[in-house]
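The instructor's notes for this session suggest beginning with a concrete chain rather than abstract definitions. Hand out the sequence below and ask the class to guess, before any prediction is shown, which regions might be ordered.
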Amino acid sequence: MATDDMATHSQGEIPPLDFSTFILSLSSSVLMHLGVVENPVTGKKEKEPLVARQTIDLIGLLRDKTKGNLTGEEAKLIDDILHELQLWYVKEAK
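After discussion, reveal the predicted structure:
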């Protein structure tokens, strides 16, 4: 498959992958595993708090390992998302 073909998805264009898009994708996964948003495959809200916690921890690991290599905007995004997800986790993972 050619590189240009990889940028095209059966439902349209896929946004270019960058660090911010990756972190936002992980955060969406956390919200899905907390049952805040529906699973796009099943159309149902499903709770898997252990998977959500692991993904939050992964985002924290990425923040720590990339410290000093992020733009100011990327660093703020990951800090803000991590804080927000931790609040959602406390609220939803009961």
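Then share the key points. The chain has one domain: 17-92. Residues 30 and 55 are 6 Å apart (CA to CA).
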